[in-house]
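Hi Y.,

Following your request, here is the sequence exactly as I used it, all 377 residues.
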Amino acid sequence: MSRPLVRLYALVGAALALLATAASSASGSAGPAAAVFVQTNGLAANAIAVFDRAADGHLTPAGTYPTGGQGGAAAGASSDKLASQGSLLYDRADNLLVAVNAGSDSLSVFSVDGDRLSLIQVVSSGGQFPASVAADGKLLYVLNAGGDGNVSGFRIAGGKLHPLQGSTRSLDLGNTNPPFFLTSPGQVGFSPDGSKLVVTTKASTNAIDVFAIQPNGRPSAAPVVNAPATQVPFAFTFQPGSGRLVDGEAGTSSLTTYALQGDGSLTDPRSLSDGQVALCWITRVRGFYYVSNTGSNTVSGYRLDAAGTPSLVGATGVVATTEAGTIDSAAAADRFLYVETGITSTVDEFRVEADGTLTSLGTVTGLPPGIEGIAAT
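Below is the corresponding structure, written out as tokens. Let me know if you'd prefer a different format.
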């Protein structure tokens, strides 16, 4: 065979190989690009159930991974065993999944590879009954809900958590361990610029505590203690652009937004009830704010205008009915919403429509009792 023909056949073969590789990648054989993680919160042994997320939002089981710790149950809790938001955190920047082990006072750190997890660390939470975690850059804080309660900091380096000496601050809540679910603090989170650390105390002190984060990563010695507009501040997020705190307040089943000032004070509250029972958890998807009403087994939707004034989606705000005990939720691809139910231990799947309504995609069943904590890539 002539040399030009050999060269031609080689070029054709290389082109076909490239086409085959592209087709294989397009078909998904290179591995799942998206996953949803659900914390089982098992009292004997905590674990993370992993689900592949299809392009249309449907979930399929992809394995279960022990955390190396134990789950927990707040006293008196029926639907929400951890009585918190943010007990499971996906840190996109470091590709880590961080879970709380409330029954063994520890945090578990997994590396994430598509739908596969590798447990790389179990570390003390620095307190009792860890219930919520938040990260900003290479800084992570855990909210420990038991006893007096505290926040405690870590540096993220080398795929692991390293305790930040001198970062623990007591919340002086005077709770038991495990805490009573109504007086257990609800969530810890960073402000959008990372300069503030926010904690909701629910009915314990009925306050929104704001710590200043210093350049060394440690919180101010004491927080600014803010009274909420309504009762029992629970879960929160922030409004992009304005940076307003968006808080779910369970006592009147209200969503309230606040301007977060540089000194840690909260001003200009704007509040609206959804008329349901026990609005607790909140997740932002596609510019809408979806709240879980655990006493009504419903999800309500809110809009915020540029000034942070809330209004309901539709006439009543109720955009979905769930299985019993609506609790924590997670967003994916800014298009899908996944809502846990704590009594039936299911995950309801929804697609978020352009008008803020939700379209049901199905329900994941077969999870053990007591689940709480959900995150998505």
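The first helix runs from residue 3 to 27.

Thanks again,
Q.
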